[in-house]
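Consider a protein example.
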Amino acid sequence: MSEKDLEKTARNYFSLNPKEYADSYSKETAEGYSFRVRKDRVLELLGYGPGRVLDIGCGPAVMTKEITDRGFTYDGIDISEVMIGEAKKKFPAASFSVGAVENISAPNNAYDVIVAMGLVEYVTDDSAAIREMQRVLKPGGRLLVSLPNWWSPMRMWDRLIIALLGSFIRRFRQKLGENIFHREYRPHAYMKTLEKEGFTIKNPTAYNFRILPRPFDYWFPKLSIITATLLEPLRLTPLRFLGTGVILEAVRKRSQ
C-alpha cells in the first residue's frame, strides 16, 4: 500500500465515527483497556509542565484535558477533519488543526514535547516522520511515541490465525470495526532509526500484557482485563517484550 493510500485509508477510517472512537476509551473491553493503559503510560512519562506540547494524531481530543491540566500549552493536529471538528467542539479554547506528521505547520524548535500515540503505525516513511518531529522539537525536547509490538506473543498469535483462517478472520475483524491495516514494529529497529535521526532513547516501557488470545478476549472481556492488569507490572522488567505495545521516550540531541 502506497503512502498516499495508507494515509487516505486511515483518514477515512478515523473519520467514520469520532464519538464512538472517543467512547471506546471508557468501554470495558480488551480494546478499551488497551487504550486506557496506553494513555496512562504516556501521561506518566509526560510528567508536568510548563512547556509546549504537540499532540500528533490527537483524534477527538482524547488527551487534551489531561495534558493541559498538567500545566502544558497544548496544540493538537490530526489528518481527519472530522476528528478535529469533534475536538474543537469539546475544547473550543484549545488549539487544533488538520495536519500530517510528515508536514507539520510549525516553525523549527517550537515544542518541548511531542506526543505521538497510536500514530506511527499508519505512517509509511518512518524516517521522514521522525525528521519532521525532530525539526519542530527544541534541542533537548522529548518525543513520546507508542508502537504496536511485533514481538508480543498475542500479536504473533493474531498473525498465525490470520494466516491460517484468512478471509474468516478478516470478516470477524470487520465486525469488530478493526478493518484498517496498521503496521507492527520491532522496537529496537525503530529505536535505531530514532538514534540515526538525532535522538537519544530513554525509558522504554510497555503496556497491555494480554494473554487471552482472540477471539476469547472478545468473548470474555472482563477476564482479559483482569489478567492484563495483573501482568502490567512487567512493563519495566526484561519481560516487557511481552506487551502488545511499547512506548519510547526519545530526547532530541542538543547538537549533532
